[in-house]
Amino acid sequence: MNRTEERLIAFEIVFSFPFYSEIEPEELMKRYSECADDIVLTDYIVSTVKGIADNLEQIDQKIRSSIKTRTFDRLDKICLAAMRLAVYEMLYNNDVPIPVAINEAIEITKKYDESLVGYVHANLGIISGSENE
Questions:
Q1: pLDDT beyond 70 at 132
Q2: What is the topology classification, in CATH, of domain 3-131?
Q3: pTM, full prediction
Q4: How many CB atoms are closer than 10 A to CB 7?
Q5: What are 72-105's pLDDT values in tens digits?
Q6: Domain ranges in the chain?
Q7: Could you write out the three-class secondary structure of 68-118?
């Protein structure tokens, strides 16, 4: 499994956060792997999902500060999960260059809803710009 495939699995688990907020990330990962026969939860997937859950407040604050046209609570769940993944990688995963984190989030968003790509790209650009200041 390559990193892009791992990222997609992490995205899908993070996407479920708002729907299962009472369930711990470890349990969500377990349920996900039980539903998908050939899925292996790699170290990257586990550390990324747990990292996002552990830093959710700080990650969401970065996203809140970037959005201008919507309220945080009204964000599309695809946008939210893609941005959470990218912001986590930008802030907490030194192995992933910022442009790669942004591009991967864009590609994941495109896979689910191409109409959301511009919004995700613009907001991640704002966030990455604030990180470089």
A1: no
A2: N-utilizing Substance Protein B Homolog; Chain A (1.10.940)
A3: 0.92
A4: 24
A5: 888 899 999 999 999 999 999 999 999 999 999 9
A6: 3-131
A7: CCCCHHHCCHHHHHHHHHHHHHHHHCCCCCHHHHHHHHHHHHHHHCHHHHH
